[in-house]
Amino acid sequence: LKTFKNITCTFCGALCDNIEVKVKDNKIEELKNACAISRKKYEHALKDRTSPMINGEESTYQEVIEKAAEILKNSKNPLIYGLSSTTAEAQKNAVKLAELSGANIDSTSSVCHGPGTMAKQLVGMITATLGEIKNRSDLMVFWGANPVEAHPNHSKRYTMLSEGLFKKNRSDREVIVFDVRKTPTAKMADQFIRVEPGKDFELLMALRLIIQGKKPETEAGKVAGLELAEIEAAAEKLKNARYGSIFYGMGLTMTGAKYMNTWAAMSLIRDLNNDHQRRFVMMPMRGHGNVAGSEITMAWQTGYPFAVNFSKAYPRYNPGEYTAVDLLANKEVDAAFIIASDPAGNLPKKAAAHLKDIPTIILDPHWNFTSDFADVVIPSALKGITASGTVYRMDHVPLHLRSFLEDEWPDDAAAVAQIGELIENA
Ligand code: SF4
Fold first, then answer.
1. What distance in angstroms lies between residue 406's CA and the mean position of ligand 1's atoms?
2. How far apart are CA 416 and CA 135, in angstroms?
3. CATH class of the 114-284 domain in this structure
4. Residues of the chain where predicted confidence (pLDDT) is lower than 70
5. What is the model's pLDDT at position 191?
6. Predicted pLDDT of residue 256
7. Amino acid 315: pLDDT
8. Pocket-testing residue among 7, 8, 9, 146, ligand 1, by greatest number of atoms within 8 A of Cβ
9. Which mutation among 38, 43, 158, 288 tests ligand 1's pocket best, with the greatest number of atoms within 8 A of CB?
């Protein structure tokens, strides 16, 4: 058995980089430090692999690359979408390809934490690394997020159960969960505050007013289904923290007032930081392994984090117009290149249906609902298993992926670059 230590798991945005893998005959024999999600994913990694296909017929790798280039070149308004489960190198090449083909380029961020990113553009976000939070945070708040189920190793490595420099264990930290239901994360908290569905904005604004020394208006003495006294007590806990951290999930970004929810949370953090004895930070609980990287790479390359259009040969940004769901649902795109994603399995029906009517190319190591009907299937190596590269953790710390198994297919970055070269040199 050959042992590989400190391997980075890419199956969620926590990007745990302490996985130990024992390998024999190009197969994973043993795993250490993997959570239930990653164990299942690693076990499945070499199964259901894709192979080169055009219109359901087996093909060669070179032929599928050439066919993909031909489709994108002949398209008047193509869409490049996905990107959150691939490397920064592939994301960078995808932006270049979008520029070469005058495409729209969007990541899955537009259907998860995109609204939070738009709020960040309005008001800014005070944040920190997970290491700093682990070492210093005495009050941890989870808002519309359930890491115990979605990011199982997160609490052990960075938050509630982690061993920090100054905050050593669970008893050194107070934990509050705001959510619409009592999740497993809420069960581990010191306090669970049940928010009336769709009323996060009202509650956040009430907290802001109390912290500013004002009295919020109530409806029959309540805001978001909570008695004013309960909200005042929560505000007091926030005020008494020395170093507070708020982790928020899609329960905040995708409900009710959407991006204004996150705007209100970011504004609350700003209010709390007006007292210089106190520090507060916040962070989205990112789902896909490199969804943070998709925003970082796209912003670095185009100036914008997602929903970018290159039809005029320079980048234009407009969520709601250049976001994949809108482009597909409005039937505005005439070809699609899906990179490391499964829109047929995840996007709203109306948007996914248009993919079946236009030439669709998919680049993915595994077979999924989109590959079932895609005109061109391009196989690829597995990020962090058979392919190396760079990924960004949810706190924007870049991590290098090391491969530890062999693969017959090149990685996403190479495939996208090859398609780009064919279009550039045509
Ligand atoms: Fe992988 Fe996420 Fe589990 Fe960490 S918490 S081992 S990154 S799936």
1. 22
2. 40
3. alpha beta
4. none
5. 98
6. 86
7. 98
8. 9
9. 38
